[in-house]
């Protein structure tokens, strides 16, 4: 049924009245038929059609397919209790409730079928029937024996007794006498009731409908409920198949005729049944269904069993095809009809919780006092959430549900009610999914665009809080979140920093949690006031009995007084609502005639659950129940009925128990068996959607715990269950016959010749992807397999398969990343104890990039694992690396050519990379709880990060009145409050105050005074106390403001260069600039408390939160004064001691830690004991880390426990033991300078920032102490600021930003050759075309041009030219000459001096004149020299000289001063820009033209009015060039063909010279870098599309590409990356991958896939083992050579 907009809005707004049926991802069809006459049809469906429908539903629509066929596998126990009819009706209702499309199919042929006895008869009706029998002088004793009056039913009824209660031997296996006894009794009872009902009807004592139920068959009853009485449109959900055997009546003599028609005796048809059947089949059904719902077929009788596969092959195949088509047709129509419901996941989520809430409300009773308190809260102006706390099982969920139902009545009829019973669905179990779901519902209700909802968690947190502002007086918002404890701990959800601390107007929030969740309650009480909490008590004994009576009344039941007494006694021992519910469900089964000795109750929840499970086992079989419950419990988060049915069908222990005395037509579990079990425990199971599948699980944690203890405690049994589930999710047995062995008892009883057999269990397929996405159709992933397979492999102890199938399988990893998230993928490695593996380290280091660009997974993995390839011993690891390389080539055309990324050590907790974090960020704060790190970005955002994982927790946008950029952030002393300000104060002085725990803005103020003359960030100091804000501008002002209003309270008349807030914010200390005076003022009265004077000029004062002392360093000497800053001390403000260490340099920094003082010099640190007033330890920087230059940064911190000293020294982290003074660890995080180091307050984490990188690294201190440095790829010290690559592509030279390190690189091998220079700083080097030599310039006044051998690293020669005269130098195309542009510093005359390489011999000079040379290069294979000349960029011309004769060949006038270049290096064509008119002097865009000049022909060969922006970079063809804005120009057509990445935001739109975009040698691809995103991008010049992205994880400093398409990138962190560009050829791809592996010096063998996803032979444990590389092969593995 199509849902109206009003119905949709009603559900989304939280109305719990008249809810539509909860949509399911399930096609569930009840098959109604008589049993004996449809055996062949049902077998055909089971064997051929149902598997096809399963596949179709899953792949086409993502639906599960399930058939409920109650006609086979019916156990004797079901017959014993007369449950068949009741169970059938329940399953018909379930199919109608759950199924998408078809839900009922009947096969209605020529047999009316079995007619059951009525299980209950109203007392009045029964008495009427008895009277009729007595009047007819019929025996009634038998009826009174089998039917007993039950007064516990209201009104009372007569209940049909279990067969075994009258015939004790009935349940005994093989007791034919008892069976026959029941058959006789059944017939007599039925005849009596038929006779009596007919008599009563004839007399008008009962209606025809009442009479007919005594004549009705099971099939007719099913059709009545499935079609005739169906509340909806049966034509959309029902099918009827009619098969008529034309000559059946001519074959009544056949011994099998009874199977196909009702017979009263041999050869005689039961006319009564045929008449009822005819009316049903030919009249009633036709009136309800259309022709397309009914299929009629006529067949002939066969002497071989009437209907069989051979004689009726055509009919059966046609039937199967018709059945398939009809069912598919109904499914497709339903999916199309219910498209909105199916596609709108938030609607499904909301309806699911609403449906569960309605169920809880149905059982709600009492709690009036709490409901009154909730009503008062809702109708008040309280701006905090209301929190309900109670012990597990106390009824919080029912209470929250009842509140949700009553909100329109007790608060506001138009209120939007957002309800989540947390943990009952996947979208309410995970914080990211929860916030997404809440935001979507609120957006719908308040007409906000759902597309605006952020994808990332931090964005979600902020956006969710923004959405709360949508609430209005006419449409208030109430959010109810039940069971916060059921949220998973992922994303640090239990910290609750995603909850609003202050609610906007018209918004209320009700939360609940159980008392055992101490961490959550602690967090709640830290944030909210005590009056915001309500304790939910357990029921009193009297209330419990009142509630039980109320529930019994709802079920039309009661108890006897004696039974009530038993219940009252038990409630005195326990009265938890959950316990009351358990007792209620037990007493429902009590009859008024049940002996009191059988009315037993347990006294605790746990014992009651155990008793329930025990009774289930007795009733349904211990084997079946224990293993079914084990599968449910082992699923951990829920299992679908299809999955459970398949698993039980694969479990031969279960099947041997079920089929103990007969062989079924198919070896599958009969559906009725689970249906019966679920019927008995349905109230303790909850349906929910997990991984896009409808599942069920225990509705309460205590049921899960009891079941786990009972069924999964045995380790071997647990592994067996998980192993069977593993095989199922692997899909091993789909379409494959599974072997099994009959038990000895079965062999004997069934007379089998062979115990071993095999059978196809018809289980569902388990591909990793159900449907590959195309166009607008999204990819449909098998999320059940992706999420559950690793878990079950782990729990089954199948570690090898866990590795090769999941954790080290690239296809799996890629698919799971696409289907879920990088956080989910990482969680697998933690859960399954692989968090120390290189793969986990690689993923962890790459997570920031993978969140934005999941397609870079292959490059991230292979670019790191290549470094550890030498340690790989198994083929699984080798294959994983090879697959990663291949995938990188296929998906991005880019492959790491060598190990190009850092593999972090275990000590690295995480690395935070975010383009909005400023480089050299000082705006970083750590929370007092050591769990969060806060950064201030360039985009006015405060980002909160999880300190332990690096995950972004929250982003808070700071909106300023005039768009000021906020750039200063400080944390208040001893508080979790952050204050944010700005130095941009020309129009105002905005300030934000934030709560660190929640990330919420507490207030935003515009201060009464602003400071427009603030110079630098360091000049503005902010601080905050409980009442005040202190703003100090060094050298200008020292002011105090009201924290809540921004009003100026005090202006201290002091010109200060240092400020410190002391104590608990009670005092402030200022140092008067250029003086020896420190002044301490009261912040309560703003009066001077103390002045401190030093006898020498102070450098700075240092304090510490853990110390009452201050340390004043003295300028120019190793001396310090220790000052008492404790206001309670008698020596307050006095110098209590002096430190003087002779013969040392000046103290640079100091730190105060209790009674310890840390004094930092240039290369050592002193630890001073203040009590003993003496030095206790000296920590000296090791010589190995000292640079050959001035040290720029050295600082240290003591850990809170005073066990370690952590220091940064340039780019190194140094850690000493404070106890022993021993240097424990030297760590180099990056080859770039460290700017700042911090310790978390608990001392667990080291946080470091860098001078030229926007990364923040977080290290685990204890692991750093234990572990050596991480692997680093090819690198230079400092940043790789410049790189020169030989034209041949054979070699390259990388230069460090420090100026004193050059590394030569052998490009084909991807390795460093040697260090070229270390003793002096040089400028840009150039490598010869052949890669043998490098020419470079240093800063010497003489001999500034030097030539170096690239192979040996030795200098070949020096050219005696002054560095002041050299303006430019270039190399010839052949690499044998260097041309140096020399300008005489007196005459200003310019000459071109040419020298030989490598000897440095002078060849000749060319006199140019007094010109400014802007460009110079060789052309036409060194035959010409091209100069761009001019005087101050005016009257610029291009002069072309013949290289051999030094004569001027051509002079091109009116040229652009900086636009001349070769089209292809060393060739004859040059490109430049010339004025369009010789007479125009103004430079304008329309006055210029692009020209191509042939230096050999001496003419312009091409002109165009399309002018590129700057120079173009060409390949080796000369047609396509790219400019610095990523625009591609086609010289052949004279037009701009593409603009790559035009919509992407680049902070600097144009690239710099060194990072300018490039074109591949064949000019098929363009490459460029995104500095802020730290990415290398690849574009197709043919299509203009971006075809590849490769992460850099650092700011790119330069970019080059060789003729062999090897891309070289120099990074700010010192790394030199080599990336191979690969074309589409599969052979080229394979060669590239194998070449990369070989270059890593690893013996590569052909990898055989021992374990393939489609390997059907993978059946036994020995087939799951992975072969290892042999010892002989292992010995051939050589380690990677790392420079």
Question: Can you walk through the features of this model?
Answer:
This is NACHT and WD repeat domain-containing protein 2. Keywords: Repeat, WD repeat. It holds the Pfam family Beta-prop_NWD2_C. InterPro entries: Beta-prop_NWD2_C (IPR056534), NACHT-WD_repeat (IPR052752), NACHT_NTPase (IPR007111), NWD1/2-like_WH (IPR057588), P-loop_NTPase (IPR027417), Quinoprotein_ADH-like_sf (IPR011047), WD40/YVTN_repeat-like_dom_sf (IPR015943). With 1683 residues, this protein is of the alpha+beta class. It contains 40 helices and 85 strands. The strands form 23 sheets. The protein has a 5-stranded parallel β-sheet with strand order 2-1-3-7-10, sandwiched between helices. A 5-stranded parallel β-sheet has the order 12-13-14-11-15, with helices on both faces. The protein has a 4-stranded antiparallel β-sheet with strand order 22-85-84-83. A hairpin with a 5-residue loop joins strand 63 and strand 64 (1377-1383). Helix 22 runs parallel beside helix 23, helix 24 packs across helix 28 (701-711) and helix 36 (857-865) packs across helix 37. It is globular and about 145 Å long. It starts with a helix and ends in a 9-residue tail after the last helix.
């Amino acid at each position: 049924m199509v849902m109206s907009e009003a119905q949709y809005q009603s559900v989304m707004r939280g109305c719990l009245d008249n809810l539509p049926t909860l949509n399911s991802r399930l096609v569930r069809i009840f098959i109604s038929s008589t049993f004996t006459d449809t055996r062949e049809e049902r077998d055909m469906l089971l064997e051929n059609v149902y598997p096809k429908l399963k596949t179709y539903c899953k792949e086409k629509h993502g639906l599960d397919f399930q058939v409920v066929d109650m006609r086979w596998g019916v156990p004797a126990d079901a017959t014993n209790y007369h449950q068949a009819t009741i169970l059938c009706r329940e399953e018909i209702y379930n199919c109608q409730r759950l199924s998408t499309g078809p839900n009922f199919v009947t096969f209605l042929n020529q047999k009316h079928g079995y007619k059951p006895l009525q299980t209950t008869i109203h007392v009045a009706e029964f008495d009427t029937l008895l009277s009729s029998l007595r009047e007819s002088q019929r025996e009634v004793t038998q009826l009174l024996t089998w039917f007993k009056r039950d007064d516990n039913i209201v009104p009372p009824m007569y209940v049909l007794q279990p067969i075994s209660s009258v015939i004790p031997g009935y349940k005994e296996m093989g007791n034919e006498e008892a069976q026959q006894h029941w058959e006789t009794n059944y017939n007599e009872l039925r005849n009596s009731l038929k006779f009596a009902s007919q008599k009563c009807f004839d007399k008008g004592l009962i209606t025809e409908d009442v009479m007919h139920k005594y004549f009705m068959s099971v099939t007719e009853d099913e059709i009545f409920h499935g079609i005739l009485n169906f509340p909806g449109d049966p034509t959309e959900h029902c099918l009827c198949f009619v098969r008529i055997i034309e000559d059946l009546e001519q074959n009544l003599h056949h011994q099998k005729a009874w199977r196909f028609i009702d017979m009263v005796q041999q050869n005689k048809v039961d006319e009564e049944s045929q008449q009822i059947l005819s009316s049903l089949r030919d009249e009633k059904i036709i009136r309800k269904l259309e022709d397309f719902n009914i299929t009629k077929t006529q067949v002939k009788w066969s002497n071989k069993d009437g209907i069989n596969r051979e004689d009726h092959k055509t009919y059966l195949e046609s039937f199967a095809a018709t059945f398939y088509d009809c069912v598919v047709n109904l499914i497709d129509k339903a999916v199309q009809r219910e498209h909105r419901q199916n596609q709108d996941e938030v609607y499904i989520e909301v309806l699911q919780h609403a449906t569960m809430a309605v169920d809880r409300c149905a059982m709600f009773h009492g709690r009036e006092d709490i409901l009154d308190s909730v009503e008062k809260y809702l109708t008040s102006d309280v701006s905090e959430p209301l929190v309900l706390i109670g012990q597990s099982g106390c009824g919080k969920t029912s209470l929250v549900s009842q509140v949700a139902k009553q909100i329109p009545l007790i608060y506001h009829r138009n209120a939007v009610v957002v309800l989540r019973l947390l943990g009952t669905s996947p979208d309410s179990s995970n914080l990211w999914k929860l916030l997404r779901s809440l935001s979507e519902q609120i957006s719908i209700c308040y007409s906000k665009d759902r597309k605006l909802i952020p994808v990332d968690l931090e964005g979600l947190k902020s956006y969710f809080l923004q959405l709360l502002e949508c609430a209005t007086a006419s449409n208030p918002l109430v959010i109810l979140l039940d069971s916060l404890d059921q949220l998973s701990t992922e994303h640090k959800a239990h910290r609750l920093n995603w909850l609003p601390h202050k609610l906007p107007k018209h918004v209320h929030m009700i939360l609940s949690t159980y008392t055992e969740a101490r961490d959550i309650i602690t967090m709640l009480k830290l944030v909210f006031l005590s009056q915001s909490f309500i304790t939910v008590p357990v029921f009193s004994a009297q209330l419990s009995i009142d509630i039980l009576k109320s529930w019994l009344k709802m079920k039309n039941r009661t108890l006897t007084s004696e039974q009530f007494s038993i219940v009252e006694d038990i409630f005195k021992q326990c009265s938890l609502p959950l316990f009351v519910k358990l007792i209620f469900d037990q007493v429902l089964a009590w009859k008024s005639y049940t002996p009191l000795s059988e009315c037993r109750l347990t006294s605790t929840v746990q014992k009651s659950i155990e008793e329930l499970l025990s009774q289930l086992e007795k009733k349904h079989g211990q084997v079946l129940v224990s293993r079914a419950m084990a599968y449910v419990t082992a699923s951990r988060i829920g299992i679908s009925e299809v999955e459970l049915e398949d698993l039980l069908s694969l479990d031969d222990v279960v099947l041997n128990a079920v089929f103990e005395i007969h062989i079924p037509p198919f070896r599958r579990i009969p559906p009725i068996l689970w249906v019966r079990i679920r019927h008995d425990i349905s109230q303790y199971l909850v349906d929910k959607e997990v991984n896009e599948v409808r599942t069920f699980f225990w509705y309460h944690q205590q049921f899960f715990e009891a079941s786990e203890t009972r069924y999964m405690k045995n380790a071997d049994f647990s592994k067996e269950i998980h192993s069977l589930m593993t095989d199922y999710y692997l899909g091993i047995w789909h379409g494959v016959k599974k072997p099994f062995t009959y038990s000895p008892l079965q062999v004997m009883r069934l007379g089998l010749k062979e115990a071993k057999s095999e059978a196809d269990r018809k289980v569902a397929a388990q591909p990793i992807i159900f449907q590959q996405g195309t166009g607008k159709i999204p990819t449909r992933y098998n999320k059940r397999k992706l999420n559950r397979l690793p878990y079950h492999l782990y729990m089954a102890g199948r570690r090898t398969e866990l590795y090769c199938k999941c954790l080290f399988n690239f296809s799996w990893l890629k698919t799971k990343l696409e289907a879920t998230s990088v956080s989910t993928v990482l969680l697998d490695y933690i859960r399954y104890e692989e968090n120390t593996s290189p793969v986990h380290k690689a993923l962890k280091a790459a997570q920031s990039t993978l969140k934005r660009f999941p397609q870079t997974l292959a490059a991230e993995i292979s670019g790191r694992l290549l470094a550890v390839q030498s340690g790989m011993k198994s083929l699984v690891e080798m294959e994983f690396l090879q697959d990663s390389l291949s995938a990188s080539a296929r998906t991005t055309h880019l492959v790491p050519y060598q190990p190009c990324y850092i593999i972090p050590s275990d000590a690295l907790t995480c690395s935070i990379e975010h383009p909005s974090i400023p480089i050299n960020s000082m705006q970083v704060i750590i929370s007092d709880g050591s769990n969060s790190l806060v950064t201030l970005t360039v985009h006015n955002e405060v980002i909160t990060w999880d300190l332990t994982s690096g995950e972004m927790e929250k982003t808070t946008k700071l909106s300023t009145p005039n768009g000021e950029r906020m750039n200063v952030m400080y944390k208040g002393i001893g508080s979790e409050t952050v204050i944010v300000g700005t130095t941009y104060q020309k129009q105002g002085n905005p300030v934000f105050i934030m709560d660190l725990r929640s990330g919420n803005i507490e207030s935003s103020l515009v201060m009464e005074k602003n400071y427009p003359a603030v110079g630098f960030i360091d000049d503005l100091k902010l601080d905050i106390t409980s009442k005040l804000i202190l703003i100090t501008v060094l050298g200008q002002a020292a002011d105090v403001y009201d924290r809540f209003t921004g009003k100026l309270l005090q202006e201290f008349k002091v010109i200060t260069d240092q400020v410190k807030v002391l104590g608990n914010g009670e005092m402030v200390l200022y140092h008067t600039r250029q003086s020896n005076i420190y002044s301490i003022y009261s912040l309560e009265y703003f009066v001077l408390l103390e002045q401190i004077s030093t006898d020498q000029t102070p450098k700075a004062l240092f304090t510490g939160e853990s110390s009452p002392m201050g340390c004043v360093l003295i300028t120019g000497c190793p001396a310090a004064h220790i000052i008492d800053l404790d206001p309670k001390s008698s020596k307050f403000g006095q110098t209590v001691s002096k430190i003087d260490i002779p013969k040392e340099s000046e103290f640079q920094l100091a730190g105060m830690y209790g009674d310890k003082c840390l004094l930092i010099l240039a290369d050592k640190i002193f630890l001073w004991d203040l009590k003993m007033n003496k030095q206790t330890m000296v920590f000296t920087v090791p010589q190995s880390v000292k640079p050959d230059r001035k040290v720029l940064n050295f600082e240290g911190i003591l850990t809170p426990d005073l066990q370690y000293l952590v220091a940064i020294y340039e780019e190194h982290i140094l850690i000493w033991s404070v106890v022993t003074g021993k240097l424990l660890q030297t760590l180099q995080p990056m080859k770039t300078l460290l700017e700042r180091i911090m310790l978390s307050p608990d001392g667990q984490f080291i946080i470091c920032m860098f001078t030229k990188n926007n990364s923040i690294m977080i290290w685990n201190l204890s692991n750093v102490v234990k572990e050596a440095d991480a692997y680093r790829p090819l690198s230079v010290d400092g940043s790789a600021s410049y790189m020169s690559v030989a034209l041949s592509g054979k070699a390259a030279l990388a230069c460090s930003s420090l100026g004193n390190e050059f590394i030569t690189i052998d490009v084909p091998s991807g390795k460093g050759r040697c260090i070229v220079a270390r003793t002096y700083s040089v400028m840009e080097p150039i490598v010869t075309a052949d890669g043998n030599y490098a020419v470079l310039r240093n800063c010497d006044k003489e001999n500034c041009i030097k030539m170096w051998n690239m192979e040996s690293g030795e200098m070949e020669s020096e050219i005696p030219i002054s560095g002041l005269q050299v303006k430019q130098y270039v190399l010839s195309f052949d690499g044998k000459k260097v041309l140096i542009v020399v300008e005489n510093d007196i005459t200003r005359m310019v000459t071109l001096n040419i020298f030989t390489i490598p000897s440095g011999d002078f060849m000749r000079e060319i006199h140019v004149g007094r010109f400014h040379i802007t460009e110079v290069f060789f052309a036409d294979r060194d035959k010409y020299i091209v100069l761009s000349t001019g005087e101050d960029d005016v009257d610029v011309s291009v002069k072309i000289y013949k290289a051999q004769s030094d004569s001027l060949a051509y002079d091109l006038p009116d040229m652009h001063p900086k636009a001349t270049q070769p089209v292809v290096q060393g060739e004859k064509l040059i490109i430049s820009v010339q004025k369009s008119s010789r007479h125009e002097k103004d430079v304008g865009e329309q006055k210029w033209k692009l020209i191509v000049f042939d230096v050999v022909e001496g003419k312009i060969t091409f002109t165009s009015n399309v002018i590129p922006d700057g120079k173009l970079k060409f390949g080796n063809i000369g047609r396509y060039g790219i400019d610095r804005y990523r625009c591609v120009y086609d010289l052949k057509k004279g037009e701009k063909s593409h603009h790559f990445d035009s919509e992407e935001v680049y902070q600097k739109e144009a690239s710099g010279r060194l990072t300018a975009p490039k074109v591949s040698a064949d000019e098929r691809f363009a490459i460029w870098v995104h500095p802020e995103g730290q990415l290398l991008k690849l574009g197709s010049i043919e299509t203009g599309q971006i075809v590849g992205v490769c992460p850099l994880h650092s700011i790119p400093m330069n970019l080059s590409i060789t003729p062999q398409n090897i891309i070289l990138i120099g990074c700010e962190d010192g790394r030199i990356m080599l990336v191979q560009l690969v074309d589409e050829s599969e052979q080229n791809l394979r060669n590239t991958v194998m070449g990369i592996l070989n270059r890593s010096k690893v013996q590569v063998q052909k990898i055989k896939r021992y374990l393939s996803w489609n390997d059907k032979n993978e059946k036994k444990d020995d087939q799951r083992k992975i072969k290892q590389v042999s010892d002989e092969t292992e010995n051939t593995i050589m380690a990677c050579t790392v420079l």
